[in-house]
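Notes from hallway chat w/ T.B., transcribed later so I don't forget. T.B. wanted the structure written out for a chain they're using in a teaching module, and asked if we could keep both sequence and structure tokens in one place. Agreed to drop them here.
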Amino acid sequence: MSTSLVLGNGSTLVNIDDDLNLKDFYWPFVGEANHLSEKANEIFFLIDGNIVHLNKDNFIIKTNYFDNSLVSSSSAYSELYRLEITFTDFVLYDKDIFLRRMNIINKDEEYREIKVFFKHNYYMREDDSGNTATWYEPAKIMCHYKKNSYLGMGFCSKVHEYTCAAPNDNDNKGAYPDNEGKLAFNPVSTGTSQSCISALLKIQGNSSQELEYFIVCGQNYNEIADLARFIRKADRKNIEEKTNYFWQNWLNPKTNIKFYKEDEKNRQLETLYTRSLLILRTQTDKNGAIIAANDSTFVKQGGKDSYSYMWPRDGAHTAMAYIEAGYPELAKNFFLFCEKVITKEGFLHHKYYSDLSKGIGSSWHPWVDKYGNEQLPIQEDETAGVIVALNKYYQHYEDRGLITELWNSFIVPALNFLIDYRFLSNNLTDNHPIGFKLAGSMLPKPSYDIWEIHWGVHSYTIAMVYSALKAGAQLAESMKYEHLIESCAQAADSIKEAYEKYFYDEKDSTFINSIYCNPLHTKSRIDKLSDASIHALWMYGMFDIDDKRIKSTIEKIEADLWLDTEVGGIARKMEDHYMLIDKSLPGNPWFISALWMVQYYLKIGDKSKATRYLDWVIDHTDHTGLMAEQAHPHTGFGLSMKPLTWSHSEFVRTINMF
């Protein structure tokens, strides 16, 4: 089930699906652990003797947010069951508590008793081994725990019934009511454990009753009991108002966007801009990690991994969005996170857990190729991108203190790595036999491309390394580090010179994407396939945007990657097999690809063409303001992760250009 609403506070992150059920629950870090990694929690009702599940088969469901807020406002209506329910959901901005306020309206003229059930399907710490579900009598809450992760569920009013069970208990129904709609009051279950609590509502005809459900997070029984007592005693309407106000106040003064002729279109852009900023905030951990995406779709479909990691690449793009939009502290925390994980050699790995103690994340980048040749398992652009973002931070905010703090621990090691990790020697055996063609060229040595697929030397990587070295020279100048100024500047200039020699195709008058070399032979392979990431050549200052070579390259990209379908959009690259729907197309349309085209046309002053791509982005963003990674090429619905942090950060950066 697709994510429809995302709520969080930097340590607790909640995803709510189209059926208004909780599908992901992360704590104590954004991105880990997802205690709902296998199956969503469920809500159902006992109405006139019938068990009725909260889903689109039984209700007309509408999801949305309050304006400029991380408080959501949703509804479910059933004509058949004469029931209307409104939902107000939020995570407290200053405490690890999720609160769901429900107003249940009896549309029948007769008095009715309605039971509401909340079923919990937790895999604590993303595993069902060693789980415990237990009724915790001292706090009158249901508790799921493992090690130092405790979740407590309850109502602000009295819990009517409860039970705990394994999935195969109760005639394989698990924690589910019996034929009379009653829970069994089983007080504990271990291993793969479920639980269920219920509330009994007595509602007069054409009247309503409020029910408030909460989840509290802590490291032990005492912590969750304290939070349960707090939320039950608190003025919860006031807490809702304070949370709503907190997020509205967190947003900088609303951007006055005047791009379209129609005011409604401009308002739509403003709404999506502020929503994107709020979405970015939910994906950013309090310790500085910016997570790529926290949608468990792949895992729930049987996959064995997710996007819930900090990619330095995605993080750097988001940090730049924060910097441009006026949120320096969030960018600063990201840089401090990167300082803690950089290697002694000066590079960043593929991806990281948001919990620093967990180290690097899973990776398909090996330390040797299939022939046994040693290689670094990196995307070099990830290290370079952080330096580029850090210099942007300094140019905007002149925070010399941060630059001084990071100088010896992060900046100098990273710059030295970027300077040294190049084809400096004509020796054909220089570290890796892939250097036959490029030996002595001064270009960066091979790494994985932006899309994490191919090992070689890539236009995007070269552009990012060039930009990072230029940024490094500026940072070194601010620190009066004369030797590094010269080293960075010379390295950048030699990279650009070599790039023009090796990567410009005179015949087609375009820049090529990549060069691959066979490690067993002295032959190389040139990749001329169009790739949207070549936009980096002008975006990061390696070439002027009015350079005729850039113009012809972008024209080729647009011609090759635009999808001639009813949905349209633009693919990220030719022969893109990732989640490919239609083999007759180069790939699926990506949001970031469309946004790069918007940026290009804005930069050259062609508003008409920029509008074409911006309209596509708006039209394929969910009604709640969530952008996926890709869209289905024939239906337009979001594909892969949703929301994808990079899609939202690229949108914010695009609007910042206005």
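Follow-up for T.B.: The radius of gyration is 27 Å. Might be a good example for the class.
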